[in-house]
C-alpha cells in the first residue's frame, strides 16, 4: 500500500475538495511554506514538458521542498545503452520522499513504482491519464466562481489520443460537471468512454458550441498520427463563440491550428490563468502527499 496519484479516482471527493481549498490558499499566498522536516522530490520526465515540469519545480520552491530534476537524454547513461526501466529504477533508488514522473504508457515503470512502494504523482502517462491537468483546469473555473455542477465542458479536437480528455472524463464523474466532445473522424472518445462517463458526443459543431459554456481546445497529437487527419477540422474561431463562453487549452497550444492565434489572449480565454494555477494546484498536491499522505493500493 502506498500514497500515489495515478488516476484522479485515486483520491476521494472529500480529498479533492480539500485540495481545491488548499490550492486557493496557495493562490492567495497563504500557507506558502509548509511546516515540517526537509523533504525531497524527484522530477523525472521521460516525455517533453514545459508547463507541468516547470510548475512542479516552482511549487517545490514555493513550499520549501528540495527537488531534483533528472535530465534523461544524451547526457545520461541511457546513451551508453542502459535501458529506460533500469534508469528509472536507479532514480527510485535515490530515495526521494515523492517522485513526479511523466512517461509513455510503460507498464514496467508503473510496476517499479509499485515494487518500491514509492509515493508518486503521475504528471502525464501516455494517452491514459494526466490527473494534475484535470485538477488545475477544474480549479481554474472553480476559482472564477463557477460551480462544477454548472459546467458544460466541450472538449474539441484529438480526444482519442488525449490523456487530458480521459482524465476529465473521470474527474467529471467525481466533481459533477458535464463533458461533451467534438472531434475529427476517428478522433473521438471510445464507445466505452461514452457509456461509462455519460459523454455528449457531438457531430454538429454549431450545436456543440451552443451547448457548452466552456470550450476546451486540444492540440492535435501529431506524434501519434498524421496531420492529414486534421486537414478538414478548422481551428476554433472567436466568431464561433458567444461573449460569455470561456476558452481553455491545456497547452502547448498551436496558434492557428488548434485555435485562432488571437484567442489565446482574448478576454474569454483562461489559458494563461490555467498555467498560473498549475503552480498552486501542484503545491496543494505536494503538500497533501508529503504531509498528509493517505494510503491507496491496499
Ligand atoms: N499541459 C501540459 O501537460 O503541458 P506540458 O506538456 O508543457 O507539460
Blueprint of the fold:
Blueprint: E1 4-5, H1 13-27, E2 40-45, H2 51-63, E3 66-70, H3 84-92, E4 98-103, H4 107-115, E5 120-125, H5 131-143, E6 152-156, H6 163-175, E7 178-182, H7 191-196, E8 200-202, H8 205-211, E9 214-217, E10 246-248, H9 271-291
Parallel strand pairs: 1-5, 2-3, 2-4, 4-5, 6-7, 6-9, 7-8, 9-10
Helix pairs in contact: 1-5, 1-9, 2-9, 3-4, 5-6, 5-9
Bound molecules: phosphoric acid mono(formamide)ester (CP).
Structure description:
Helix 1 crosses helix 9 and helix 5 crosses helix 9. The chain has helices at residues 13-27, 51-63, 84-92, 107-115, 131-143, 163-175, 191-196, 205-211, 271-291; strands at 4-5, 40-45, 66-70, 98-103, 120-125, 152-156, 178-182, 200-202, 214-217, 246-248. It is α/β, with parallel strands linked by helices. The model is unreliable at 293-298 (pLDDT under 50). It is globular, with a radius of gyration of 19 Å. Phosphoric acid mono(formamide)ester (CP) is lined by residues 49-52, 124, 133, 250-252.
Amino acid at each position: 500500500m502506498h500514497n500515489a496519484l495515478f488516476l484522479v479516482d485515486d483520491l476521494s471527493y472529500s480529498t479533492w475538495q480539500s485540495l481545491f481549498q488548499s490550492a486557493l490558499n496557495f493562490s492567495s499566498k497563504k500557507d506558502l511554506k509548509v511546516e515540517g522536516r526537509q523533504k525531497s522530490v524527484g522530477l523525472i520526465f521521460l516525455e517533453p514538458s514545459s508547463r507541468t515540469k516547470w510548475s512542479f519545480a516552482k511549487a517545490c520552491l514555493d513550499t520549501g521542498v528540495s527537488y531534483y530534476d533528472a535530465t534523461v537524454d544524451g547526457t545520461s547513461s541511457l546513451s551508453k545503452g542502459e535501458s529506460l526501466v533500469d534508469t528509472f529504477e536507479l532514480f527510485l533508488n535515490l530515495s526521494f520522499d515523492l517522485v513526479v514522473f511523466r512517461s509513455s504508457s510503460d507498464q514496467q515503470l508503473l510496476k517499479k513504482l509499485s515494487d518500491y512502494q514509492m509515493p508518486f504523482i503521475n504528471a502525464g502517462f501516455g494517452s491514459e491519464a494526466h490527473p494534475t491537468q484535470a485538477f488545475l483546469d477544474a480549479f481554474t473555473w472553480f476559482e472564477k466562481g463557477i460551480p462544477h455542477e454548472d459546467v458544460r465542458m466541450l472538449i474539441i479536437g484529438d480526444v482519442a489520443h488525449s490523456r487530458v480528455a480521459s482524465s476529465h472524463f473521470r474527474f467529471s464523474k467525481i466533481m459533477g460537471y458535464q463533458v461533451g466532445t467534438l472531434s475529427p473522424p476517428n478522433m473521438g472518445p471510445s464507445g466505452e468512454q461514452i457509456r461509462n462517463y455519460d459523454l455528449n458526443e457531438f457531430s454538429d459543431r454549431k450545436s456543440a458550441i451552443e451547448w457548452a459554456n466552456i470550450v476546451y481546445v486540444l492540440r492535435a497529437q501529431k506524434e501519434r498520427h498524421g496531420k492529414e487527419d486534421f486537414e478538414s477540422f478548422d481551428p476554433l474561431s472567436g466568431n464561433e463563440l458567444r461573449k460569455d463562453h470561456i476558452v481553455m487549452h491545456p497547452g502547448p497550444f498551436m496558434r492557428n491550428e488548434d485555435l485562432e492565434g488571437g484567442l489565446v489572449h482574448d478576454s474569454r480565454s483562461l489559458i494563461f490563468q490555467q498555467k498560473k494555477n498549475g503552480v498552486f494546484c501542484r503545491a496543494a498536491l505536494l503538500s497533501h502527499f508529503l504531509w498528509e499522505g493517505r494510503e491507496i493500493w491496499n
